[in-house]
Amino acid sequence: MDHIQGQAEPEEQSGGAAALPAPVAPARVVTLTAGEFTLTVNPVDGSEIEPLRPGTRAGRPAKRDAAARAARDAAARPPALPGAPVPARPPRAREEELERLVRLLGRGRSVRLTGPAGSGRSSLLDEVAAQCAGLAPDGVVRLSGYGHQQPAELLHTLYETVYEASDTRPDRIEILARVRDIGAVVLLDDLEMGGVALDELLRATPECAYLLAATPDTRAPSDDSHIEEVFLGGLGKNECLELLEAGVGRPLTEAETAWASDLRFASEGLPLRFVQAAALLRQRDEINHTDEADDEEEPGVFEERPRDTVEVPLPTLAEGAAPAELLASRVSESARAALRIACALGGELPHHAHLPALVGDTHADSAVAELLGCGMLTQVGPRYRLASGVARQLEEVGYGDTAAEEARTAARHYAWWTGHASVNPQRVAAEADAVLAALGGADVVAAVLLARTAAPAFAASLHWEAWDRVLRAGAEAARKAGEVAEQAYFHHELGVLALCEGRLDRARAELETSIGLRGALADKRGTVAGRRALALVVDREAAEVTVSPPLRLEAPAVPQADSPAAGVTAPALTRGSGASEALTVPGPVARSAARPGAGSATAGRAAAGAPSAASEAVTRVAPVVPVTRRQEPPTTLSEVFEDAFPLSPKPAPAPTPVAGPAADSGRRRRALLAGAGALAVVVLGTVVSLALASSDSEPPAQGPAVSTSPTRMVQPSEPGISGNDSPADPADPVVEPSAQSTAPGGTAGAPTPGRTPSRTPSRRPQSTGPQPPASSSAPVPPTSAAPTPSDTPSASVVPSPTATATGTATATGTTTSPGPGTVR
pLDDT tens digit string along 721-738? Predict the structure, then answer.
């Protein structure tokens, strides 16, 4: 008898006295090879990891022979169940689909068998496995994809099935190299992944032919996978009746046949519904005492139930479509208790050896066979779980009301069982789904205890996906419970697991967290173990860092010895065309702006012969103030000055590819000349403007002599310019005076040829130009300001000796004063 069934024996033998404490079993310390590391699983202080010592690496593993594969396949099947035998399998009803699947797999094609839950996919896979036993050199491999969303764990399971590799967990590179040589027919039931993950699984095993059984809601494979699709629908009317008769064990009556026809229409011919319907008819027969043996027996004296039978009618169509409630009401009490535990664990049914301890009945292990015969359980790898739709139907009638209590009981039981010395890690790994389900539904205290005992077992069994899940759940439960020491243990184990899988960032974060917690607890041994593992992480990070070439700034160009301008060539501002330009600074300015040692270093490199640009990494200096070139050439000095020295940065255009060192040097030389010319224009324009501004006074025009007596007169200003206005802009066009003759008594608009205008010195320079004639025929524009009186003495105009026939005096030469900035 299993030790689980005899766990209450010490209390019974003690005769009611207090039970003596059981002796402490020795801790299970397991040494494994994980990739390039040696992993020692220590349940007390945490796992220890160190590099694999030289000479201890195992060679290429050998493949299992046919006998070893058969033994392993038998061990992976569900064990024989105690109790009443399960009804025999009905005759084959999928001959067409079976023949097509075997033909495609024989050609090396991968097939995806799609069918709804309860369509008989697992039974069809059993038939395919029997006929494909000799097709591949490595035989047939049965795998379960339930709960696997990534292909890593499936690849490791495939590797363990084909190769003789005990206590070894290769890294990803080695596993990919080993599974590539596997040539087998892989039957993968309960597939839950698709798309990229499925493509990765298929690419990793190119010599394998897959038969993937999945439901329609599973993610479809990608278009490049080239997987054949076979859809598995419901059964026909005749097949449903044959399946029902085989389950009942007798011919059907007319009423039962009509009921079965209606049930087929309601359930779309799913085989699972007819297995459950056969169980309903068997239970009805037992209640109605229709067996011939019961009719021949005489009523007993001590028989509790009355002899008079009660006719139970056929189930309704609704009860046949959802029969879980009716089936559960007719099974034993131990079976109903097992159903409550399964509902509390999310549909997972514990191994039949655990039911006596969980239910409290020594014969509760026979409940699994009873439920399996009723069609309420389905096979998932080496274990059983509730069939599709059963958990929902039971929870609706109250089977989930005690879920919290049942999950807490299961968690405490598994905490004791996983930590027992007589339980090997492989048995714990086979019960991983039930353990994880109990861990998720338990309280924080029971969850911490269960995770603490189950994590080393999962690590030793090489079931690292379950190890990762139980460690994360344990760390969260320990945080909620305030168990700092347990929390530090879980973070340490998570760091070791991440280091074994090559996730260095995750390993560093987990180990640093563990070291901090253990440092707060003054746990020296745990801190030392964490620092050793962290040192391995640092070494791995240093080994994976790629040494990059040193970066340097681009050296400035060195002027030639015979160059007329000896200065420093600085990177110029980027123009609109994207070409690189330069600006030459004169020698004194260059010496003041150059950095100390920059010129000597550059000259040394030029003299010694600098390496080519392809051999060194060069970082080019981006311009600080980008300038955009104008679309039109500048026409005034202000525009030239704005182009040369912008006041605000403008958006730089997209950079263009650099032609090469030779092109850059030529472009810089041209840019040097352009920049020098622009600077010269700016300087020349500034000098001319200053010179003109200093001599902008205009002498009075030569005319008739005037008296020197001081008179008060009003001088009209120039049209459009007041006395406080600034001189005209040099960019404005200059209007030449007209050459038409003036009226008698006025002055001429143009100077007389052959005569040079003379200047008369004045005491105060005038800021206005020549006044227009009083008798001019052209209209006078309005002035911008009123005439201002002048208190300064003015000279009278002296007429020239030349006189006309009418005796009127004319001006011999009157010129206009040029504006500032105008070259005469």
Answer: 444 444 444 444 444 443
